[in-house]
């Protein structure tokens, strides 16, 4: 997906029905919004908006590459109507990944390249997403877990204690074949599996499955505080755990004692790390910035980079925070 950031007013948002803090819009509506962002919209990207290759997994891959890891991304982008070439956002996305050092396997889909639009309205954000081609990803577009395992070379660099990691995200769960392939990779590829639900809605919908994966696959679960609260609500039948407002602390302590790890991203408060039943609080130094989109993806990249180098859970949390600070300070992108 491509990320687009622009300023707007209430009239503009009402015109296109962007009235909620977060919502999905059809591809046709997104195309109309993007055309209106700039009065001089053309085949080139309008100068009045800020663009970046986006999507949580792609952001994590880019930052992981900047941190010295070999990174690959598997996805689906849109094609021009004449076929054979990526559309303008797809081409932009592909170039941005290559610039960051990410190896990309991108299939051309039938729908336009997905767009994540962030409009700033009177200092508040309105997010509209149109996944479009991103939803056309097929199971066969992802690598075979057996092939991954057979191609894992013996570790030649002592700084890496594990062969690699595989991160998949919540938007893939709506396709059962893709979900099955992701779980096959998580269970038998030899890579460290990691998952990010990406939205509160996905966390709530798939809570039982997601929580079972901690023990079954010993994966690393990345969530923000609202997603953690949603998982705890579903796990405890909607009641607060022990009267505490943040039942996710007890939830993750219990579940990670059986396997896996959970990293709860707490923005300027740092991160809470749960592993092997232990709890670690990783504090951070707040960064003053108007735009924080992608900081959570940087936490995941820094955490996984440290984990692959054999760092302890608390060290992984600190490295995740450090990567997020560097991202917000625009030292890594």
Describe this structure as you would to a colleague.
- By secondary structure, the protein is an alpha/beta fold.
- The protein has a domain at 138-328: UDP-N-acetylmuramoyl-L-alanine:D-glutamate ligase (3-Layer(aba) Sandwich), CATH 3.40.1190.
- Helix content is 38%, strand content 22%.
- The protein has helices at 10-15, 27-37, 56-66, 88-100, 145-151, 176-188, 200-205, 207-217, 225-235, 248-256, 295-308, 313-328, and strands spanning 2-8, 22-24, 50-53, 71-78, 102-109, 115-121, 124-130, 165-169, 192-196, 220-224, 261-265, 271-275, 278-282.
- It has a 6-stranded mixed β-sheet with strand order 8-9-10-11-12-13, sandwiched between helices. A 5-stranded mixed β-sheet has the order 2-7-6-1-3. It has a two-stranded parallel sheet with strand order 4-5.
- Helix 6 links the parallel strand 8 and strand 9 (192-196).
- Helix 3 (56-66) crosses helix 11 (295-308) and helix 11 (295-308) crosses helix 12.
- The longest helix has 16 residues, at 313-328.
- It is globular and about 50 Å long.
- The model is unreliable at 40-47, 154-160 and 240-245 (pLDDT under 50).
């Amino acid at each position: 997906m491509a990320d687009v950031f622009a300023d707007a007013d209430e009239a503009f948002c009402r015109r296109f029905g962007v009235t909620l803090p977060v919502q999905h819009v059809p591809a046709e509506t997104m195309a109309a919004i993007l055309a209106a962002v700039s009065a001089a919209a053309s085949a080139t990207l309008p100068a009045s908006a800020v663009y970046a290759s986006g999507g949580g997994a792609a952001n994590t891959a880019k930052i992981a590459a900047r941190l010295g890891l070999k990174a690959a991304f598997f996805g689906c982008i849109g094609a021009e109507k004449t076929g054979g070439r990526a559309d303008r956002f797809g081409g932009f996305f592909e170039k941005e990944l290559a610039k960051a050092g990410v190896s990309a396997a991108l299939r051309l889909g039938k729908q336009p390249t997905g767009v994540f639009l962030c409009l700033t309205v009177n200092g508040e954000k309105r997010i509209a997403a149109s996944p479009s081609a991103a939803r056309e990803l097929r199971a066969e577009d992802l690598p075979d877990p057996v092939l991954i395992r057979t191609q894992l070379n013996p570790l030649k660099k002592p700084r890496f204690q594990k062969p690699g990691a595989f991160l998949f995200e919540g938007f893939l769960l709506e396709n059962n074949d893709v979900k099955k392939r992701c779980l096959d990779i998580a269970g038998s590829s030899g890579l460290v599996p990691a998952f990010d639900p990406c939205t509160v809605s996905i966390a709530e919908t798939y809570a039982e499955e997601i929580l079972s994966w901690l023990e079954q696959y010993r994966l690393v679960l990345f969530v923000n505080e609202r997603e953690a609260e949603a998982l705890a609500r579903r796990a405890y039948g909607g009641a607060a755990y022990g009267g505490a407002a943040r039942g996710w602390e007890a939830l993750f302590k219990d579940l990670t004692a059986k396997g896996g790890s959970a990293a709860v991203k707490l923005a300027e408060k740092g991160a809470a790390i749960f592993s092997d039943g232990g709890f670690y609080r990783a504090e951070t130094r707040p960064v003053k910035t108007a735009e924080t989109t992608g900081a959570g993806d940087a936490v995941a990249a820094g955490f996984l980079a440290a984990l692959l180098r054999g760092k302890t859970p608390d060290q992984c949390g600190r490295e995740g925070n450090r990567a997020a600070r560097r991202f917000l300070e625009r030292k890594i992108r």
